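wait is this the right file?? whatever heres the structure
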């Protein structure tokens, strides 16, 4: 046996996601790189660790046992690293955060400097849909969740990070420049919706329902990026968070369609279960945010004020 820690980590992520593609995305590696390491790891065992049926990857019973051992080994390695850094007086630990998909445009800016200041801190951030984000918080799987629509059923505490503004967005070919009536615009234009459970969709539907707006043309896509690409291709229009379309607005590929009642304003909030006992690294991060969030907003999000 001559497997590496990198191979153990890749194999563990593949078993957790049951997908080479998803594992590559979460590890920020290319799919071929993950496939090669998985193949090299498998070559050291006479018994299959995974199998592909149809197009789906399954983990064998033996593979599940190896995955458990791999997780134990990696946890021991993390513990050694933590102890070494703690002995040197450095802040150590693992910070676990789940964020709704559009939150990927927000959360990194509120993490980057903290991680630079504390190299002994490891980050686990799951960027997924709102339903999964709330589930992970409810199951106490994460320290924090980043949302733009607060969950109604959970007893939580929150720290507001950034205002969230949502506009009706079209591509460069849209010609209307004057502010128009929402009922007229939404009824005439082909509207693109996010999937059920998306925070952006909830906000968009609340605006539509509260203003009694008839929407006759409808398309549904499962990510903010997919919606953006559809708009760029001229397939329709959608209400989108300003945070995710900065570059396209600046280079003129997308434009804001002026509509009465827009933008919709919500808040990006970091939330956690009320009464949760935080580890030292989590407390340190909260203290950091309370002290630095205004500076972060001014430095990275000043362009917001143009819209």
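ok assuming it is, sequence goes like this
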């Amino acid at each position: 046996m001559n497997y590496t820690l990198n191979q153990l980590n890749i194999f563990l992520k593949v078993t957790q996601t049951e997908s080479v593609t998803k594992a590559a995305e979460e590890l920020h590696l290319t799919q071929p790189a993950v496939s090669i390491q998985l193949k090299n790891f498998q070559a050291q065992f006479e018994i299959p660790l995974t199998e592909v049926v149809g197009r789906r990857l399954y983990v064998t019973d033996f593979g599940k046992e190896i995955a458990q051992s791999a997780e134990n080994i990696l946890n021991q390695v993390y513990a050694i690293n933590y102890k070494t850094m703690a002995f040197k007086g450095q802040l150590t630990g693992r910070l676990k955060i789940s964020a709704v998909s559009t939150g990927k445009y927000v959360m990194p800016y509120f993490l980057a400097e903290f991680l630079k200041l504390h190299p002994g801190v490891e980050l686990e951030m799951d960027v997924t849909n709102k339903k999964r984000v709330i589930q992970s918080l409810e199951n106490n799987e994460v320290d924090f969740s980043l949302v733009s629509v607060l969950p109604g059923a959970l007893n939580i505490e929150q720290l507001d990070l950034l205002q969230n503004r949502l506009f009706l967005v079209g591509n460069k070919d849209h010609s209307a420049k004057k502010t128009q009536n929402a009922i007229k615009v939404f009824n005439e234009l082909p509207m693109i919706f996010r999937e059920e459970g998306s925070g952006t969709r909830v906000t968009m539907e609340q605006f539509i329902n509260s203003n009694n707006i008839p929407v006759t043309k409808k398309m549904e896509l499962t990510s903010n990026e997919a919606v953006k690409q559809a708009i760029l291709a001229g397939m329709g229009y959608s209400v989108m968070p300003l945070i995710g379309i900065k570059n396209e607005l600046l280079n003129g590929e997308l434009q804001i369609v002026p509509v009465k009642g827009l933008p919709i304003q919500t808040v990006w909030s970091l939330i956690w279960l009320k009464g949760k006992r935080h580890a030292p690294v989590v407390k340190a991060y909260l203290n950091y945010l309370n002290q630095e969030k205004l500076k972060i907003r001014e430095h990275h999000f000043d362009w917001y004020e143009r819209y």
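The first strand starts at residue 50 and ends at 53. so i think its the right one actually
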